[in-house]
Each structure stands twice: as structure tokens, then as C-alpha cells.
Amino acid sequence: MVAHEDTTGPADDGATDDGAAVHPPLRLAIVGYGGAGREIHARLAAEAGHTVTAVLTRDSGRRNQAAGDWPAARLVGDLGELIELRARYDVVVLASPTALHAEQAAELARAGVPFVLDKPIGVDAHEARAVVAEAAATGTPFTVFQNRRWDPEQRTLAALLERGELGDVHTFERHWERWRPVPRKRWKENDTAGGGLLLDLGPHLVDSATQLFGRVTSVWAQTRALTTPTEDDVFLVLAHEPGGGRAASPHAVVSRLWAGSVVGAPGPRTRVLGTGGAYLVTTFEQDASPLERFDDDAPAGSHGWLTRGRDREPVPTGPGTHADFYRALAPWLAGDAPAPVDPADAVRTAEVLDAARTSAREGRQISL
To answer: 51-77 b/e with 16+ CB inside 10 Å = b?
Structure first.
């Protein structure tokens, strides 16, 4: 990876022959260079043509990684020091542990520094609303990193819904399950304030469901801690408003969402049921599954199957990649496009997750 020369600001926008704005690559500062900061944010930013010019991390091993990845980047140890280096970057990416999100976001907002905040934007809806309010009060642009909106299955399913090939959808199911009987030694597994699968995978699951099927009207949930201090087994049932989302189904679609770490037989990853058939995705990324052979004869350029009983046909993969989130940052910061993810969506997701906690604790359905 090659870093930009240090400059005092982004280059001037040019334009194409048809008058469309041409936006220069951005310079990013990343807070937290662990798994998410390095392996997801920095990687996708580089794929989109951007450069990391500053990194905040106190871990010596991660500082060495950042120096090797981005030799020209400045390495700092606290957020105040990073804010003082404002001329070196265009936007800050907060990839720190969840429990720090609200506090760090508020500090950046008060300094007027645009930022990308990894999901979730707070440990609960109260923190989420506070972050949005602080950014609004100071006029600071920020967006939320929801890269799973650009998953192949999500893009493919959205295109399938828009073509109406499933008819009127009534049920959405998604499993985010793994076989990890020995927990990893990370904050995500052990931090009882900001860790656990409800806050780690729950935002992805809920955001995916609401983007496709609309606002949630009620929540029922079960959560358990089987091998970690935080929950590692989560089940959510969401009822959506009729006619909502991309599906625009006359039914009140029901979403059944699973997240688990102690699952010896994961999957099927996604199953969407409608009056015209079903969309089926059997496996997910590198997670082992006994259903892997189902896709042995899947043609290139397809993702999942349109099924009707025993009949099945491959579905062409919808356009886009995860790096499209980072490609959308420059037009957004220039005021030429909306935020790639509206923070209001993240607040609504936090409200659903709060309701899930209450439902699991009290054993009842919660209306929203």
C-alpha cells in the first residue's frame, strides 16, 4: 500500500465531459487498527483508491502493522492528538470497540471533523440518538459503516425483489452462524458493555431486514450466553409494516434472524419466501456448512437459487461490492450525493435491538 504525499487538503474537483463531478481520492485517519480497522476498513478504502494518512492505536503490534501498510501515515496514541493533525486527513474512520463509539463520535463532532462510525453507533438507542444530535448541533457530517448492505446475497435479493420474481413476500430468514466452540479472546466476546452477538451481528441482521422489508412494528427475542460472558446465541422475530421496504409486499413480512457461535450445522444462510417462489442461499463466506455441496453446480456470476419445490434456477449476482461504500464517501463529503448510510437508519436499528433486550429479559413481544 502506498500513502499519499502529505498535503493540507483534498485536491480540487474536476469534471467529466458530461459535467459530472470527478472527486479525488480521500485521505483517511483510522481509529483502531485491529481486525476491523486493518482487515476491513483499510482494505476497502485502498480498493476504492483512498489512502490512510493517520492511524490511532496504542498497541505496539498494530502500530508496526500500520507503519508497514502505510509508511507515510502518522501514528498517534489518543484522539486529541489525532484532531490536532486535522490537515493530514479528510475524514476519520472510527473502528474502535463499540463501548467507545458514542464518546469518540461526540469528540469528533464537537471538533467539526467528518467521520465514518462503524456499526453500532452506540451500545443502545440513547447513545445512538445522542451521537446524531451532537453531529446535527455542530453541523458535522457523519455516516455509518454498514458494509453488509453490499453483500452479494443482499444485492442479489434486492434485485430479485425489484423484478417481482418472488411474488408477494411473507417471510425472511437469515442465519449468521458459526462453529466456534472455543471462543476467541477478544473484546467482542468478553466485553459485557459493548460485546456480544446482539451488538456485533444484530445491527447487520436488523439493517438488512429493514432495508428490504420496511419499518419494524414488533420484536420478540431470545438470547443466551453459552460459552462467553456476553450472548453468543441470538434469535429475533421482527414484524414489519405492510408495504414497506424494497419488497413493498401487502403482507406484514416476518423476519426470523439467527446469530450463533456454537452451531455445528450452520445455515441455510438466507431463505426468503413469497407467493411466487423462494430465494435460497445455502452458505456464507468461509463459514463451514454441511450444505456446501448444494452449490457445487452453481454457475459463475450467480448467487443463490430461485426455488419452487424441487425446481431451482441460479440467480445472477446483483451489482456492487463492499468497496462501493468507500467509493461513495468522496461525493458525499463534497455535497454531491447523500450519505452512503443515513445515521437515522442506525438509530432505528438500535431501537429494535433495545426492544430485543427487553423481550429476551421479560419473555414477551415488544411493540414499537
So the answer is: bbbbbbbeeeebbebbeebbebbbbbe
Q: Are 217 and 252 in contact (CB under 8 A)?
A: yes
CATH for the 149-320 domain, from 3.40.50.300, 3.30.360.10, 3.40.47.10, 3.90.1150.10: 3.30.360.10
Query: Hey, how many other C-beta atoms are within 10 angstroms of the C-beta on 224?
Result: 14
271, containing H or E segment: strand 270-274
Is CATH 3.40.50.300 correct for 14-145+323-339? no
Q: How many CB atoms lie within 10 A of CB 191?
A: 18
Residue 211 and residue 344: Cα distance in Å, rounded?
12
Q: Determine the Cα angle at 306 with ends 341 and 280, to 5°.
A: 65
Would you kindly state where each structural domain of the chain is located, as residue ranges? 14-145+323-339, 149-320
Residue 278: half-sphere exposure toward Cβ, Cα within 13 Å: 17
pLDDT in tens, the chain (368 residues): 333 334 334 444 455 555 567 899 999 999 999 889 999 999 999 999 999 999 999 999 999 999 999 999 999 999 999 999 999 999 999 999 999 999 999 999 999 999 999 999 999 999 999 999 999 999 999 999 999 999 999 999 999 999 999 999 999 999 999 999 999 989 899 988 899 999 999 999 999 999 999 999 999 999 999 999 999 999 999 999 999 999 999 999 999 999 999 999 998 999 999 999 999 999 888 778 888 888 888 999 999 999 999 999 999 999 999 999 999 999 999 999 999 999 999 999 999 999 999 999 999 999 99
Quote the cell numbers at residue 133. Answer: 444530535
Q: What angle do CA 200, 205, 208 make, to 5 degrees?
A: 130
Residue 108 phi, psi dihedral angles, 5° rounding: -65, -40
User: 3-class SS at 82?
Assistant: helix
What is the pTM for the complete model shown? 0.92
Q: How many CB atoms lie within 10 A of CB 333?
A: 18
How far is Cα 350 from Cα 145, in angstroms, rounded to an integer?
Answer: 14
